[in-house]
Prior knowledge:
By secondary structure, the chain is an alpha+beta fold. Helices cover about 35% and strands about 35% of the residues. It is built from 5 helices and 7 strands. Strands 1-2-3-4-5-7-6 form a 7-stranded mixed sheet, with helices on both faces. Strand 6 and strand 7 form a beta hairpin. Helix 1 runs antiparallel to helix 2 and helix 2 packs across helix 3. It is globular. The two termini are about 25 Å apart. The relative contact order is 0.16.
Amino acid sequence: MISIGKASTEDIEAIQSVAEIAFPATYAEILSPGQQAYMMEWMYSETSLRRQMLDEGHIYYIARAESSVPVGYVSIQRQGSDLFHLQKIYVLPEWQGKQIGRRLFEQAIRAVKELHPAPCTVELNVNRSNPARGFYERIGMRVVREGDFPIGGGYYMNDYIMGIEV
């Protein structure tokens, strides 16, 4: 049994515990170890996660196993009057293939609809070499554009931007 609940700053360590495993596993064949380390600090340090939640409007949800162990998370952020961005969605490798990613995505869409009942767009970035693109296509998202985005440290995110109307 998996439960999904809204996260707070009290859950930062839980998010980090999943990120420390899922992020490197996702990008081992895609990004250099240096870029992975840079991005982990940039996105998952306590300071960064606290800023995301308190100042930047990121809303996180955590999937937990029956034992209350965190196994995945998703975050959304409003980016315009009719635009939301799914910033992050990760599931521990040993829990992938068990519909947790789909359930986290569905939770994110429910949260968007609660915040914005009128029709709107949800977008996300996915690395152009990430096989997760297939997962996003299976749940109804489509590539709408692509871009190369500097993130600092001489690194870039080379992404597809995928979208879905909700």
